[in-house]
Design brief:
single chain; 300 residues; mainly beta; 7-stranded mixed beta barrel; 3 helices; 22 strands
Length: 300
C-alpha cells in the first residue's frame, strides 16, 4: 500500500532530499542531498525506512501537510513544535497519522532545518500545471534531491503538491523515539577542522585567527554554503590566482575579502579561491544547521 500527502503550506523553503548524487562531480553535478544527513537518517530509522530514503527538508519550518491515507511519519533535526490537528505532539518520535489528519511543523527556536520522513519514503511529487495538466517529478541521476545550484531534481515543494510514498519494505522498529540534544539558542557552535589543502596560501597570523577569533554567520546562508564574518579578515601569504580545483562538502573557502565560506551540500564542484581547511565530516550536520547571527568557532 502506498500513502499520499497533500501540501497545504510549504513554509519558506521545503525540498525533497535523500542521499544525493555522489559520483557525478566530473560532469559538474554536486552530490547534493540532505544538508544534515544524520537527521534525515534518524527520521527514516523511526519509520522503518532505509537511511537515505527521500524525505522533506524544511527551512525555518512552516510546513503543513494533510494525510490522504493512514501513514507513519517522524520529524527530526533541531527540537521543534509539531501539531496534529492542532494538538501538540513530540519531535524525534514516530507519529501515526490517520487519513485526513493535518501535520504542522513550526520554525525551530535554534537551528535551521528539520526533516520529515514518511513511511515507505517519498518516490514522486505530483503537481497541477497552469495548463491543468498533471506534472510528475521523479528521480534524476538516481536521486530525488532538489539541487539548489544546478536545478536538478525536484523543484521546491509548493502548496497543493501531492507527495507519494512507496509501500513500506521493512517492519517498524521497536523504538518509537530517539534521544536528541537540542542546540541552545545563543550558544557558540564549534566546528572541528582539518587543515589544508591550501593553508600555505595564508599567513601564520591568519591561520591563528581562524581558530582563535569569534565568527558570526552572515545573512548569506543557503544550501550552497554559509558565509561567516570576523573582526579581522584572513590575510594571504601570497598573491596571484589559484587555478580552479575540486571542492568537497565542508570546504572552508576564503574569497578575496578574507571572510570564509563553509560549503554545504549543493556547493560547486570546483572553485578558484584557496581552501584553508575542511570541516570534519562529523560536524557537517552542525554546519548545516547554522542560521544568520549564530556564533561560530573553528577548532583544529
Amino acid at each position: 500500500m502506498t500513502a499520499r500527502l497533500q501540501v497545504i503550506a510549504p513554509g519558506p523553503l521545503t525540498t525533497v532530499q535523500d542521499q544525493g548524487r555522489p559520483g557525478y562531480g566530473a560532469t559538474g553535478v554536486s552530490a547534493s542531498g540532505a544538508a544534515d544527513r544524520a537527521s534525515l537518517a534518524a527520521a527514516n530509522r523511526l519509520v522503518g525506512n532505509r537511511p537515505g530514503a527521500a524525505g522533506l527538508e524544511t527551512t525555518m519550518g512552516g510546513l503543513t501537510v494533510r494525510a490522504h491515507d493512514p501513514v507513519a511519519v517522524a520529524v527530526t533535526g533541531p527540537g521543534v513544535a509539531i501539531d496534529v490537528d492542532g494538538t501538540p505532539v513530540g519531535s524525534h518520535c514516530r507519529i501515526h497519522l490517520r487519513a485526513g489528519q493535518v501535520l504542522a511543523v513550526s520554525a525551530p527556536s535554534a537551528g535551521l532545518r528539520n526533516y520529515v520522513a514518511v513511511r515507505g519514503g517519498i518516490v514522486r511529487i505530483e503537481r497541477e500545471a497552469a495548463s491543468g495538466a498533471r506534472e510528475v517529478f521523479g528521480s534524476e541521476l538516481g536521486s530525488l534531491s532538489s539541487d539548489y545550484l544546478s536545478g536538478l531534481g525536484q523543484p521546491p515543494v509548493s502548496a497543493d503538491d501531492q507527495l507519494l510514498a512507496s509501500a513500506a519494505q521493512a517492519p517498524l522498529p521497536a523504538a518509537d523515539l530517539i534521544p536528541h540534544r537540542a542546540p541552545e539558542h545563543g550558544s557558540t557552535v564549534v566546528l572541528p577542522i582539518v587543515w589544508g589543502p591550501r593553508d600555505d596560501w595564508f599567513t601564520p597570523d591568519a591561520r591563528r585567527l581562524l581558530v582563535t577569533q569569534a565568527w558570526t554567520v552572515s545573512q548569506d546562508v543557503d544550501r550552497v554554503g554559509v558565509r561567516v564574518g570576523g573582526a579581522e579578515p584572513l590575510a594571504r601569504a601570497r598573491g596571484g590566482e589559484l587555478a580552479s580545483e575540486p571542492m568537497v562538502t565542508g570546504a572552508l573557502q576564503v574569497p578575496a575579502d578574507g571572510q570564509p565560506v563553509v560549503f554545504l551540500a549543493d556547493h560547486p564542484v570546483t572553485g578558484g579561491y584557496p581552501v584553508i581547511a575542511v570541516v570534519r565530516a562529523s560536524a557537517l550536520g552542525a554546519a548545516a544547521q547554522l542560521r544568520p547571527g549564530d556564533d561560530v568557532r573553528f577548532s583544529g
